[in-house]
Design brief:
Layout (H helix, E strand, L loop, with lengths): L4 H14 L5 H18 L8 E2 H12 L4 H11 L6 E2 L1 H13 L2 H12 L6 E3 H11 L9 H16 L6 E3 H10 L16
Antiparallel strand pairs: 1-2, 3-4
Helix pairs in contact: 1-2, 3-4, 4-6, 6-9, 7-8
InterPro entries: EF-hand-dom_pair, EF_Hand_1_Ca_BS, EF_hand_dom, Recoverin
GO molecular function: calcium ion binding
Protein name: EFCB1 protein
Length: 194
């Protein structure tokens, strides 16, 4: 069901404040897009928002994302209340950071995507899983896992400032501020310039 004008206006006003990187008309467009996507998903939970699958389809269609592990991470960062659905508010506020976030916001966002178990650290195992997942496998004699272990060691050497064998948000932030290219070190989780 299309949202009534008054409700749309209220939502646009409040999201205009909380999703600070969009102007009102952009917020309104995103709300309408959300409604369209939810209607398209024909999901019986559509009233709550859209689920992980619909979200994945959207990430894939709109931003060319293909990595399931990363898309799940993106879903987790959008799904603030952890109910398994993206509400319209989570959608607009999430996109505000995803599309136009400040470096600060994007650092926090990428860190959350990479912190697979949500414990506040990116562990050696998490790095290994993400890199193993995103790198092309070369048919070679040597054990491909070795190369990935080496990459994880290099990442830790470069980014683990307090030398505790894992990355805290502070480590990650410091590393990215020194070298911006490290922002998506463990897999593409932000849209490209297009």
């Amino acid at each position: 069901a299309a949202m009534n004008r008054k409700r749309l206006q209220q939502l646009t006003d409040s999201l205009g404040r909380s999703a600070k990187h969009f102007n009102k008309s952009e917020v309104e467009c995103l709300i309408k897009l959300y409604d369209t996507l939810v209607a398209e998903s024909k999901n019986r939970f559509a009233a709550v928002g859209f689920d992980r699958n619909m979200f994945r389809v959207t990430l894939h269609r709109a931003f060319g994302m293909t990595d399931d592990m990363i898309m799940d991470g993106v879903f987790r960062t959008f799904d603030r209340d952890n109910n398994g659905y993206i509400s319209v508010v989570e959608w607009v506020e999430g996109l505000s950071v995803f599309l136009r976030g400040t470096l600060e916001e994007r650092i926090k966002y990428c860190f959350e995507v990479y912190d697979l178990n949500g414990d506040g650290y990116i562990s050696r195992e998490e790095m290994f899983r993400m890199l193993n997942n995103s790198l092309l496998k070369q048919p070679a004699e040597e054990d491909p896992d070795e190369g990935i272990k080496d990459l994880v060691d290099i990442a830790l050497k470069k980014m683990d400032y307090d030398h505790d064998g894992k990355l805290s948000l502070m480590d990650f932030e410091k590393a990215v501020r020194d070298e911006n290219l490290l922002l998506e070190a463990f897999g593409p989780c932000l849209p490209d310039i297009k």
